[in-house]
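Predict both folds.
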Amino acid sequence: MSRTVIRGGLVITAADEIHADVLIEDGRIAALAASGTPAAEAFTAERTVDATGKYVIPGGVDGHTHMEMPFGGTYAADTFETGTRAAAWGGTTTIVDFAIQTVGGSLREGLDAWHAKAEGNCAIDYGFHMIVSDVNQETLKEMDLLVEEGVTSFKQFMAYPGVFYSDDGQILRAMQRAADNGGLIMMHAENGIAIDVLVEQALARGETDPRYHGEVRRALLEAEATHRAIRLAQVAGAPLYVVHVSAQEAVAELARARDDGLSVFGETCPQYLFLSTDNLAEPGFEGAKYVCSTPLRPKEHQAALWKGLRTNDLQVVSTDHCPFCFTGQKELGRGDFSKIPNGMPGVENRMDLLHQAVVDGHISRRRWIEIACATPARMFGMYPKKGTIAPGADADVVIYDPHAEQVISAETHHMNVDYSAYEGRRITGRVETVLSRGELVITEREYTGRAGHGVYTPRSTCQYLD
């Protein structure tokens, strides 16, 4: 039996803050006791971690990543090995990545392919969502089987005609199936058919720079698709999770649906909270670094997103980590913004940026843990195994120094990508030590983990629907 005790830190969960010592046995949290009490003094272990003056928080749960994802003739630059290592450096101990069904293929083939990519390569634990690109009778039957084996969420796209796109009829059928089998439909809500018209017209006018990516993917077309997805889910009697919400008009649609008592959930990402169309408009071709979909919005949208996180109209912050190198990948779109691979790196930065939001007064410390750890774990059927520090939970624990200062830079990050979306940004707070199931993955800013420590984690259905 291996034992570790973490002494003297401020333990922060979504529900509580307490100065407590944490006892870990065989990869799980065995007990907590208020620091300095006889109960805490009685904890004995082979290894002691001193967390005096630090936060002790649950490992982050990033419910939206794309490792090794094929897109636009290339692949996301992070493998499961490099991407999960970078996640650990940033205090994230569980990811849920997206397996992809190719049109004409089965869900099973797509899922098997992603298992093969990840198995034996991950530094931290992982699960899968399933991208459903081809809704047919066989696919619908497979959805039932996947839910039974712990793949309980299915992503559909109202965007990308000819690639991932599903029409309203296909979406409705998948939602009806999810209503029956307990699955959660995740929606990329943008009107892709209308966007393609605007892309074609912009290029015909000679508007080819990265900034036009944001201009053609209108906020109103995100709001329209969000509204349509909500109504289709209502017709189907199914829950809905809208991914990467970026526009204040889309937040308003979610808020209205939730006020009406519908099981509708929303996620946003750090890029929408901290970056804007100002970045897309950076001179030369620099704006290409910030091309993602949904796109970055004008700065005034940020206030609505922060408010949504405070009022719980948005429940989760994930990264949508989908990195493409500037050299050789983003450059595929020189002279035609529509050919820039869509996606940004961020799996390493999320916990730190959200701590900066605590420092800046946007959210509380407990809300930080809620939106980054506890809620994604509940949303995707992994709580309380993941997302909290409590007896019986996996010992996924981060020792976090709230006073350390750092400057985010591609020079020092661990993601396999040649730029940082937050280059030169000074932030307060830094991960010091990370345990995954009781094993030290980061030890006082040294990587001590290994590929293959991370294991596949089957999930139950969304825990907000029980």
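Second protein follows, with its predicted structure tokens after the sequence.
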Amino acid sequence: MKETVIEILMDVRPDIDLSEGVKLIDDGELESLDVVALVGELNDEFDINISVKHLIPENFNSVEAIVALIESLQE
């Protein structure tokens, strides 16, 4: 799942820095339109529904946080 999330992130923003410790939102790697595109791709790929209540920086600040969000929505 982590590899798929990374692939989707790279599709949305090929120039993104995914190095260890980078905060995707806090460090400005992802902007609001990037998150919108990312949510659409994640919803389609994992057959989930990321709603407005899930659109908080903590859920998109790292690959691990995104994976945790997906896993919680698949339960």
